[in-house]
Design goal:
The protein has two domains: 37 residues; 140 residues, Glutaredoxin, CATH 3.40.30. It is elongated, with a radius of gyration of 22 Å. 39% of the residues lie in helices and 17% in strands. It is built from seven helices and seven strands, in the order αββαβααβαβαββα. Strand 4, helix 5 and strand 5 form a beta-alpha-beta unit.
Length: 198
Amino acid sequence: MRLRMIGLAIVLVALAGIYQFGVWAFDKITGSTFGEDPAPTSLDVGDLAPNEEVLEPNGDPYDTGFLYGKQPVVIAFLEGHACAGCVDALAQLGARAAEFRAAGAQLVAITADNPAGAKQTVAQLQAKGIDGVRVFADPQRYVARQFVVKTPHAPTGLSAVFIVDTSGAVQLAARAETAGAVLPGPQELLASLKPTPP
């Protein structure tokens, strides 16, 4: 009985080793990571923005593709409601919401919070008199990874800002690669909005 247990243990260890070698070889041959969705290495002007699922503050799923199809969208990525500098930077954009609407665009924020945190971000904006920003949650940062947004260490403002036109093409891509990096402000974003061809 004891020899059978030892033999079974040896077989299991050998199988685990073969599996690990197979995963390693697959990764080396294909250049991908087994079992994970590969994230793009860049998303720049002219590229198509991904259609991915975010969560509304009430927890309902929402496909980002629906945002792009109606009108150009300015997408601001931020850490969440606990980052006061992030919410302040978002409020600066939101204070110009009427101008963005007049230019035919909508303002959207995608936060790394869960839906409850996104709801808190909405409440923080409303406390500042801002109601022209649509806030979504991306708790697993899947959408942020698709947009190739890397959060700076100790963020002090927005992580990234994109403008996507109605065809889904990126018109502007700006990322804060380091803490304190300066992203385009409301005036620059308004000037970057281009009419979408019919």
